[in-house]
Design brief:
The complex is a heterotrimer of chains A (551), B (357) and C (323).
Chain A (H helix, E strand, L loop, with lengths): L3 E10 L8 E11 L4 E5 L6 H8 L7 E9 L2 E2 L5 H7 L4 E4 L13 H11 L8 H14 L16 H13 L5 E5 L7 H18 L2 E6 L2 H7 L2 E6 L2 E7 H6 L4 H8 L33 E14 L2 E14 L3 E5 L6 H8 L10 E4 L2 E2 L4 H8 L2 E4 L3 H4 L6 H11 L6 H11 L18 H13 L5 E5 L7 H18 L2 E6 L2 H7 L2 E6 L2 E7 H6 L4 H9 L7 H5 L1
Parallel strand pairs in A: 3-8, 3-9, 6-7, 7-8, 13-18, 13-19, 16-17, 17-18
Antiparallel strand pairs in A: 1-2, 1-4, 4-5, 9-10, 11-12, 11-14, 14-15, 19-20
Helix pairs in contact in A: 3-4, 4-5, 5-6, 13-14, 13-15, 14-15, 15-16
Chain B lengths: L36 H28 L5 H8 L4 H10 L6 H14 L12 H36 L4 H14 L3 H15 L18 H38 L2 H8 L4 H23 L1 H15 L4 H10 L3 H29 L1 H4 L2
Helix pairs in contact in B: 1-13, 5-6, 5-8, 5-10, 5-11, 6-8, 7-8, 7-11, 8-10, 8-11, 9-10, 10-13, 11-12, 11-13, 12-13
Chain C lengths: L6 H6 L4 H4 L9 H21 L2 H23 L34 H36 L2 H16 L2 H11 L4 H11 L2 H15 L2 H8 L4 H37 L10 H10 L2 H4 L2 H29 L7
Classes of the chains: A alpha/beta (551), B mainly alpha (357), C mainly alpha (323).
Keywords (chain C): Cell membrane, Membrane, Transmembrane, Transmembrane helix, Transport
InterPro entries (chain C): BP-dependent_transpt_permease (IPR050366), MetI-like (IPR000515), MetI-like_sf (IPR035906), OppC_N (IPR025966)
Pfam family, one (chain C): BPD_transp_1
Chain lengths: 551, 357, 323
């Protein structure tokens, strides 16, 4: 069998421009013995992808690798191009992010699996007919129907594409499988199925698994050992349980803290962060019984080519003053559409009622504009939400200008920035988005909403595109806004942990319907609906290789 | 694996403006759905029909309304008595009300009657039929060569980006792109027809030869060489640039890494994966510009006295022979619109992402 | 280019001094920072442009031709082109010391004709391009921003002009209108905007899908705010780079129309010179200089515009830089 080892590996991207060389990986030593499972966790830019691509020499020619990358004892740099091609896929294969663009969009997926077999024709698949049989057998292994072989990637769902990638990786009976963010962009339930399936197939065959992810929980649920990388360096390495449950490095603690254990009292209403937002009021606001935003019988339908589809069905919701309500659901559950209709950005079906402070949502453009002062929305990706050419001041002032609020403009902007804890505000006023970190950008977006003095904030996945270490900061800010200003918030998320961290109430959505709705403590501690139970069970837990052992 | 209960396409969550790079990626488990082929066909047919109607209407109003009175315009070019003018006017039906003229014109288009040429004193439709063949021969030959050459050089150029070959190919095409077609024709004519006298300087066939005899075919090919080179040189450059840009864009795609990781050679990666993907957007652009190639025939045919629609247009301009110009305009436009429609249908058939609903 | 186009708005967004006193004064001078950022950007872009040799050569060629076009009357008075005053000049004189670029069929010096031709050719090229850019930008923005019936109609019109080549439409327009420089400008400007509209539309669509547009809507913004505050600044750099590329095409179009006999015969332009040479079959009669010189002038100027345009495009869109 084949071991994979990295000995003091440093990888530098040589650049002809005046930016100079960029060191992506510095001095990493890791070992993956036969049959072992190793996870590498790190945020974007940590160098984890660069490291694994070096294992099959897939980096651009201009890259310099120092140290040794050994596959089965041989330094891969000593192999000729012909030899490395023979090693690729036959000894070590890669499961790429299938949900994205790792499959050729204009070729049938079955053919793409067969292509791998053709290039490493050995064992039982030396003829076209046996290759075809093997391809069907592989589809069966990953629980896909034979008929999917003639599908094109665009005809498959994200999970199905990921299964194709796994089937392809298993095709040539490799000794090592490298999985590159195999479940990113998948829903939690699909993620669980993919991870459990992958772990099982790998274990049955004695294949070594090297998995990288930004999600510590996903890795710890599958791998025996974990390595944490940051800025190209190894921060911590050890058995999964030890790294997750008793981390030594501060950075690991921060990462581990980003994944609250639902049911753990310590993290309830207390997102873990090194920079908690300040609560200034002696008597912080708490949830009241005064309803600010209410939806009754809210339905939204779209005309699609298949006919009329109802994206939101008969939803009843009430948001109270100083309440944080989390609407949890998978992608396609209609939660974003629900948020947009609460804002009047989305045409609703007849019979639907949305009321703000007891009056129905206005229909006319001008009245809607005034209404928007009261209810503001934070979008998913702060980098996309800011015009890259506008300074922070311009971004925050935009709402005031649009709403024609002209008095005390400067004071309002500074006030909003400080409420979003960007202090001192004056230091940030003329920065442009690219000079800010992800968390700071999200604060600017929040400040832009706060400048209008809204009573309600609707946030769509406010932390989903942020690095895990920033997650706690932003969540703590939401909590502080509620406590300091009495702000009500409706937060759309796929993440039950977020609800546990900050929400008073939670509504679970499935295919446009709210299936369970109530206090966070009640719902998450004692879920009634089967779907809520399923969602809860699918959340990966830190440590213990939970999916492998219990799945 | 466990039974994929939730791992099936879910109903659409609506027209969400997909977040750029958000890691949750809404609606990820819902593959996009295309329309039916019939719907696509009808939409494209409708578009082509609208364009054709616009051409027909433009053809009428541009030529009758804008100049005020075409007969006066003729009269300005050559001396005529008022009686002659009046006679011309009734001869071309210009004394009738505009609506009646428009109706006559519409009926004419459907019955193939496009009026009578002022200069040739022959029906415009007869002239067009006579001159259509040579234009199709010239433009089709040029189009096939230009597309083939452009796409082939373009993909090589992209794959060997920044190599000497790429730099040569790119700069040559930039120079050709900056050359007026007719001037290049004149230069070629001067060198190969004038100075060197290797090739004939004009026409399609030496008078007296039977075009269907062997000698005749060779003679036509000789006449064809210079005009075809002229058209190809100017047009292939654009195709090269489009193919090159398209392939370079494709080269950073993840599925090429997958192909490399599977152990394919660089040549296989290029031929089996990158080029087929890059070709699809290129084809659209190539066919979108086919009109440019076809109208290039106007100046090329004028320079080489090639007896085609382009030369007819050139003569109609010099006349000015407005019925003839109107006729060639409508026919040229019709050819281009039909070509574009064909390209749309071929594209639909080639690209699986839109082929299957 | 890059950030420069938002200067006006940035000035407007300076904190109002009246309200500043209400809170603590700004710790740092924001206005100065903005100015510095823009200056740095301009410097960076200029050094990028300067490092592109082809673009620099193009820029120098352009400056040269623009200068000779402007100063043509001073260098060679119009009387030097008057046929009646050239009776003692040999006709069809090949290039020599006495006649640097040779003479034409009426004994006029070709170098003087080229000099004067530069005026019309460049003027028509620039004027037609400006017209085409304005139409293209407006149509492209409308097609990209407005959905529904209005957007579809605009899209249909753009499609029509994309499918039908501009030369064909320009021939029709210029043959039915009075001959003249203005007609040529209108004929080219009115028919060549579709590709600009297409580029603007796709850029508009891509900006339209950005979250900051959705955010502006959430803040209560209407069409006017979104179009003028977000869309226009986002498409303008692209349009400007496209302009330099289009001037080249417009100059070629002018020469083609003149060559076809649709130009203003009373005004010198490079296309008119080529038309004259064609009329006397210069190409097949051995008067090579008569054909060569005006063509080379056209190619030089068009190539120069193309080089500069490509360099600008690469600066605006760094993704193109490696191409």
């Amino acid at each position: 069998m084949t071991d994979l080892s990295f000995d003091n590996v440093s990888i530098t991207y040589r650049s002809s421009s005046n930016r100079g060389d960029v060191t992506a990986v510095s001095d990493i030593s890791l070992n993956l013995p036969t049959g072992a499972t190793l996870g590498i966790a790190g945020e974007s830019g940590s160098g984890k992808s660069t490291l694994i691509m070096s294992a099959l020499r897939l980096l651009p020619k201009s890259t310099r690798i120092d140290g040794q990358v050994r596959l089965g004892g041989k330094d891969i740099r000593d192999l000729s191009f012909g030899e490395i091609r023979a090693v690729r896929w036959a000894q070590a294969s890669i499961v790429f992010q299938g949900a994205l663009h790792s499959l050729n969009p204009v070729r049938e997926v079955g053919g793409q699996i067969i292509e791998a077999l053709e290039h490493h024709a050995k064992g039982t698949w030396t003829t076209p007919a046996t290759r075809r049989d093997r391809m069907f057998a592989l589809l069966d292994e990953v629980d896909l129907d034979k008929s999917k072989a003639v599908s094109y990637p665009h005809e498959l769902s994200g999970g199905q594409k990921q299964r194709i990638m796994i089937a392809m990786a298993l095709a040539c009976e490799p000794d090592i499988i490298i999985a590159d963010e195999p479940t990113t962009a998948l829903d939690v339930i699909v993620q669980k199925q993919i991870l459990v399936g992958l772990a099982k197939l790998v274990a049955e065959r004695g294949i070594s698994l090297l998995m990288i992810s930004h999600d510590l929980a996903v890795l710890s649920a599958v791998c025996e050992n974990l390595a944490i990388m940051r800025h190209g360096k190894l921060v911590e390495y050890g058995p999964s349980d030890q790294v997750c449950l008793a981390p030594v490095a501060d950075y690991t603690k921060q990462l581990a803290g980003a994944f609250p254990q639902i049911g753990d009292a310590e993290s309830r209403m207390n997102p873990r962060t090194l920079k908690p937002a300040e609560v200034r009021r002696a008597e912080p606001y708490t949830k009241t019984s005064e309803v600010v935003l209410e939806a009754r019988n809210l339905s939204v339908s779209f005309d699609t080519r298949q006919g009329r589809e109802r994206a939101v069905r008969d939803v009843d919701l009430a948001l109270h003053k100083a309440e944080i309500l989390a609407v949890v659901g998978q992608s396609g559950s209609g939660k974003t559409t629900l948020a947009r209709s609460l804002l009047g950005l989305q045409q609703v079906d007849p019979g639907s009622q949305v009321e703000f402070a007891g009056t129905a949502l206005p229909k006319k453009a001008k009245a809607l504009r005034t209404f928007r002062r009261q209810v503001q929305m934070i979008l998913q990706d702060p980098s996309g939400s800011l015009n890259p050419k506008r300074s922070v001041y311009e971004a925050v002032v935009e709402g005031l200008r649009v709403q024609k609020i002209t008095d005390n403009e400067y004071a309002r902007v500074v006030g909003a920035l400080e409420a979003a804890e960007l202090t001192p505000a004056a230091d940030y006023l003329e920065s442009i988005p690219q000079e800010l970190s992800g968390g700071q950008r999200q604060r600017v977006v929040i400040a832009g909403a706060l400048a209008l003095d809204p009573q309600v904030l609707i946030a769509d996945e406010p932390v989903a595109s942020l690095d895990a270490s920033v997650r706690g900061e932003i969540l703590s800010l939401f909590l502080a806004l509620k406590k300091n200003l009495g702000m009500s918030a409706l937060i759309i998320t796929h993440d039950l942990g977020l609800a546990w961290n900050i929400a008073d109430t939670v509504a679970v959505m499935k295919t446009g319907e709210i299936v369970e709705y109530g206090d966070v403590d009640t719902v998450l501690a004692n879920p009634q609906h089967a779907y809520t139970q399923e969602l809860l069970a699918a959340v990966p837990r830190l440590g213990s290789q939970s999916l492998v052992n219990n799945g | 694996m466990t039974t994929p209960t939730h791992d099936h396409p879910t109903p659409p969550g609506g027209p969400d403006p997909g977040g750029s790079g958000g890691s949750t990626g809404r609606d990820m488990d819902e593959p996009p759905k295309g329309g039916s082929f019939l719907g696509y066909l009808l939409r494209k047919l409708g578009g082509a029909l609208t364009s054709m109607i616009l051409v027909v209407v433009l053809g009428f109003f541009a030529f009758r309304m804008l100049p005020g009175d075409p007969v006066l315009k003729i009269a300005k070019e050559r001396p005529m008595s008022p009686a002659q003018i009046a006679e011309l006017r009734s001869q071309y039906g210009l004394d009738k009300p505009v609506i009646v003229q428009f109706w006559d014109y519409l009926v004419g288009i459907f019955t193939g009657e496009l009026g009578e040429s002022y200069v040739y004193r022959k029906p415009v439709s007869d002239l067009i039929v006579d001159y259509l063949g040579p234009t199709l021969l010239l433009t089709a030959t040029a189009a096939i060569l230009a597309i083939g050459l452009g796409l082939w050089l373009g993909q090589l150029s992209a794959w060997r980006r920044n190599s000497l070959f790429d730099k040569m190919a790119s700069s040559t095409s930039l120079v050709f792109w900056s050359v007026p077609t007719f001037w290049l024709g004149l230069i070629l004519l001067m060198i190969f027809g004038g100075t060197l006298q290797w090739l004939p300087t004009g026409g399609m066939i030496t008078p007296g030869l039977d075009p269907w005899s062997f000698a005749g075919i060779i003679d036509v090919i000789k006449h064809l060489i210079l005009p075809v080179i002229t058209m190809v040189a100017v047009v292939y450059a654009q195709y090269l640039m489009v193919m090159r840009a398209s392939l370079i864009e494709e080269m950073s795609e993840d599925y090429l890494t997958t192909a490399r990781a599977k152990g394919l050679t660089e040549d296989e990666v290029r031929k089996k994966h990158a080029v087929p993907n890059a070709l699809l957007p290129t084809i659209t652009v190539v066919f979108m510009h086919i009109g440019g190639l076809i109208t290039g025939a106007v100046t090329v045919e004028a320079v080489f006295s090639w007896p085609g629609l382009g030369k007819l247009t050139f003569e109609a301009i010099s006349g000015p022979d407005l019925p003839l110009l109107q006729g060639t305009f409508v026919v040229f436009s019709a050819i281009i619109i039909v070509m574009n429609l064909a390209a749309d249908i071929v594209y639909r058939w080639l690209d699986p992402r839109v082929r299957r609903a | 280019m890059g950030e420069n186009d938002t200067t006006a708005e940035a000035n407007a967004s300076e904190p109002n001094p009246g309200t500043t006193s209400a809170t603590q004064p700004p710790v740092i001078d924001g206005a100065k920072l903005v100015r510095e950022r823009r200056l740095n950007n301009a410097k960076k872009n200029w050094s990028l442009f300067r490092s592109d040799i082809a673009a620099m050569v193009g820029a120098i060629v352009l400056i040269f031709f623009v200068l000779i076009a402007i100063f043509a009357p001073l260098i060679a008075p119009a009387s030097m082109l008057d046929v009646t005053e050239q009776l003692d000049v040999p006709r069809y004189a090949p290039p020599s010391l006495a006649h640097p670029l040779g003479t034409d069929d009426l004994g006029r010096e070709l170098w003087i004709r080229i000099l004067w031709g530069a005026r019309v050719s460049i003027l028509v090229g620039v004027a037609a391009t400006v017209m085409s850019m304005v139409i293209g930008t407006v149509m492209g923005l409308a097609a990209g921003h407005f959905s529904g019936f209005f957007g579809a109609v605009v899209m249909r019109i753009i499609d029509f002009f994309i499918v039908l080549p501009s030369l064909l439409l320009a021939i029709v327009l210029s043959s039915v209108l009075e001959r003249g420089v203005f007609t040529i400008v209108v004929a080219i400007g009115l028919t060549s905007w579709a590709s600009t509209a297409r580029i603007v539309r796709s850029q508009t669509l891509s900006v339209e899908s950005r979250l900051y547009i959705e955010r502006a809507r959430i803040l209560g913004a209407g069409h006017r705010h979104i179009l003028f505050r977000h869309m226009l600044p986002a498409v303008m750099p692209l349009v400007l780079a496209n302009t330099t590329l289009t001037v080249g095409s417009a100059i070629i179009a002018e020469s083609t129309l003149s060559f076809l006999g649709l130009g203003d015969t009373s005004k010198e332009s490079w296309g008119t010179i080529l038309k004259n040479s064609m009329d006397i079959s210069a190409a097949t009669s051995g008067y090579w200089w008569y054909v060569l010189t005006p063509g080379i002038a056209i190619v030089l100027v068009v190539l120069a515009f193309t080089m500069v345009g490509r360099a600008l495009e690469a600066i605006i869109n760094p993704a193109l830089r490696s191409r």
